[in-house]
Write a structure and sequence with these properties.
The structure holds 2 protein chains of 2 kinds.
Chain A: E1 4-6, E2 11-14, E3 19-25, E4 33-38, E5 45-50, E6 54-57, E7 60-65, E8 70-75, E9 84-91, E10 101-103, E11 107-112
Parallel strand pairs in A: 2-11
Antiparallel strand pairs in A: 1-3, 3-8, 4-5, 4-9, 6-7, 7-8, 9-10, 9-11
Chain B: E1 4-7, E2 10-13, E3 19-25, E4 31-38, E5 42-51, E6 54-57, E7 64-66, E8 76-78, E9 87-94, E10 103-104, E11 108-112
Parallel strand pairs in B: 2-11
Antiparallel strand pairs in B: 1-3, 3-8, 4-5, 4-9, 5-6, 7-8, 9-10, 9-11
């Protein structure tokens, strides 16, 4: 099993739609998780952190299911500007005691008018 | 402006040549990282550094050399470039451990002919 696995997409959705991405991870010791956003030909930037069961920030909700070892990202009321690649990121071990992040290959979202 | 910068932004070099990619950050972050990003692989860690004069290998270190004599600089050298090293290279930094938020530079697009 890959350390971090994502559906590459693309997910093509109309403006206003709700879309969800899932990510599975293999390291059960990981305690915090991240979603990064990467625009075309740009650097990744942190979108959300998830430390417990979930986190919500405006139209974005991240949820964590430790038992099944997956993280999800829900985007409500999609905007054209949400078009990007979303990277699921998991620390290699416990966040307080690890030097490294493991990046998924990303899920591409395209929002159309 | 404060932040993390990379130079050059674009580089074309020939097989066998030595090339150095520069990374500079103004936050005094302890941790710095070098990643490469290729289609189908996502971000892969090449080398990282926990502090000045402390470096360690990541997932794909072969063919690369790093140094960190000053906290703010973390150059990456390709000793003898190969075509397989054609990629986009991102430098990143993190305030505390590498398991928390990482801030990325704009990237260097390297083509080896």
């Amino acid at each position: 099993r890959k350390e971090v696995e994502q559906d590459p997409g693309p997910f093509n959705v109309p403006e206003g739609a709700t879309v969800a991405f899932n990510c599975t991870y293999s390291n059960s010791a990981s305690q915090s998780f991240f979603w990064y956003r990467q625009d075309c030909r740009k650097e990744p930037k942190l979108l959300m952190s998830v430390y417990s069961s979930g986190n919500e920030d405006g139209r974005f909700t991240a949820q964590l299911n430790r038992a099944s070892q997956y993280i999800s990202l829900l985007i409500r009321d999609s905007k054209l500007s949400d078009s990007a690649t979303y990277l699921c990121v998991v620390p290699e071990g416990p966040s307080y005691n690890t030097d490294k992040l493991i990046f998924g290959t990303g899920t591409r979202l395209q929002v159309f008018p | 402006d404060a932040g993390i910068t990379q130079s050059p932004r674009y580089k074309i070099t020939e097989t066998g040549r030595q090339v150095t990619l520069m990374c500079h950050q103004t936050w005094s972050h302890s941790y710095m990282f070098w990643y490469r990003q290729d289609l189908g692989h996502g971000l892969r860690l090449i080398y990282y550094s926990a502090a000045a004069d402390i470096t360690d290998k990541g997932e794909v270190p072969d063919g690369y050399v790093v140094s960190r004599s000053k906290t703010e600089n973390f150059p990456l050298t390709l000793e003898s470039a190969t075509r397989s090293q054609t990629s986009v290279y991102f430098c990143a930094s993190s305030e505390t451990t590498g398991g928390w938020e990482q801030y990325f530079g704009p990237g260097t697009r390297l083509t080896v002919t």
